[in-house]
Amino acid sequence: MYKILFTNNKTGREKPSRIFQFTSPYPMPFSLFNLPQMKKIVIKHLVLSVIILSSEITLSQNPIDPGDPPNNKDIPGFYKSRLSDIKAEIKGLKTGKAEVIASTPGGLPVYAVYYGQKDDFQSQANYNSAVGAGNAAYYAKKDSCTKPVVYFVGPVHGSEGEGIAGLVNLIHISETGKDYRGRAWPELKKYVDQCRVIIIPSGNPDGRKRCPYDSFVNLPCEMMTKYAQGTRKDGTWWKHPQCKGLHPMKGDVGMLGAYFNDNGINIMHDEFFSPMAEETKAILKIARDEAPDITVSLHSCCCLVPSMLQNYHTPLFMKKRVAELASQLNQRYRSLNMPHSKEGWTLSIEDDDPAFPPKRSFNLVSALHHLSGTMSFTFECSHGSLIEGNDESMVKYNRILDIQLILYQEMFNYIVNNRLYWN
Ligand SMILES: [Zn+2]
Fold first, then answer.
1. Cα(103) to centroid(ligand 1), Å
2. Ligand 1 centroid vs 77 CA: distance in angstroms?
């Protein structure tokens, strides 16, 4: 068995490395003086090297097609949406503890950062069995003596780097009390100090690495569509939601979109009873082990107003809680003069799919709830991309970071004041 360490420095952005393993086809040791055999071996090694190199090339970041706008050059230093930003932040941890929870098909690490000591929930059953027994406490005993557990699942769609920028700043606040603009967040820091917090800065490093744009601020929304969902072999775009009609995204693929990991898996719609992606398995395992009180899956869209989405296929009491937090968050955005929905807006708590055909899927956030009882939901942030007819976006870097940090603060605020005890 040989191991070859291959480092790609081409992008200048990430310095990923991969370990390739293969079994030697040659008798060892071989005679150095057996020239015909040596020639054969050299040729075979060259062939193997070409295979290894080409597989590495397929992992490199997608170039921006000629004619498409270049990456933004005015991205401020505090807007840390790259994988290298995550790596640097983790390197500087003093309070938080980082773990590699999975390795992607592209050979990249998926990190989780932990704050606060984990409480012993005296678990003796999995969540659904405990509910079957009539008391979720068999899965996790939670009362005022245990800390609230807050779980942040960073973007599982690689083109949605806004959540990475937010979470790297949240880690920085947890460490120093300030975000990368130098702004203090004493309330947020206090919440982190009193809770158990788990942060996955990027749920899909493969996709993030393939996305050539570090932000979509002031770019046409179509660029996000093209590079997120990818293209077919004939060059036409997959778009949303048609891109969910082929899963794994394999076969008719020109450019694999950043939505997917390198194996074509959209983690949001993995097969949750038998996950295809290691990233999904790791995200679910944390929920099962940590029994989070609240969990967010961070996403972004070509929208001006950020919003939470309802969690489908979950119990009515949980939908009501998600709607309650959504209203409070919207109210908070409104009071801060940030983009918001009109006063009185709230999420629907209606039945899922009362009539055929079904339209609401059981996705990652549904699975997270059913594994752990967590109050899980999807959050959609604005990309700051251009909405038709405008030549300047109303949402830029500062605002995107505020949208993220205010969401986190409201999540803590809600769960600290509205905990569900299982005992
Ligand atoms: Zn998304």
1. 21
2. 24
Ligand 1 centre distance from Cα of residue 158 (Å) = 8
Name which residue leads in pLDDT, 11 or 218: 218
Which DSSP letter does residue 109 get? E
Which residue intervals of 196-355 are DSSP H helices?
205-210, 221-229, 278-290, 316-335
Q: How far is the CA of 99 from the centre of ligand 1 (A)?
A: 24
pLDDT 10s digits, 118-132: 999 999 999 999 999
163 CA distance to ligand 1 centroid (A)? Answer: 10
Give pLDDT, residue 6.
33
Q: Which residues pair with 110 in a beta bridge?
A: 102
Ligand 1 mean position to 160 CA, how many Å? 6
Q: Parse the chain into domains and list their residue ranges.
A: 2-57, 83-417
pLDDT higher than 70, residue 27: no
Q: In angstroms, rounded to a whole number, what is the distance separating the alpha carbons of residues 105 and 244?
A: 20
The CA 115 to ligand 1 mean position distance, Å, reads: 26
Residue 2 parent element (H or E):
strand 2-7
Task: Please name which of 182, 214, 219 lies closest in space to residue 75, comparing C-alpha atoms.
Answer: 214
CATH of 83-417, one of 3.90.1150.10, 3.40.50.12160, 3.40.630.10, 3.30.43.10: 3.40.630.10
Percent of the chain's residues with pLDDT above 70: 86
What single-letter DSSP state applies at residue 63?
A: P
* pTM listed for this prediction: 0.86
**pLDDT for the residue 216:** 96
| pLDDT value at 31 more than 50 | no
User: The sheet that has 109-115: what strands, in order across it?
Assistant: 97-103, 109-115, 196-200, 149-153, 294-301, 375-382, 307-309
The whole-number pLDDT of residue 63 equals 83
Q: How far is the CA of 141 from the centre of ligand 1 (A)?
A: 33
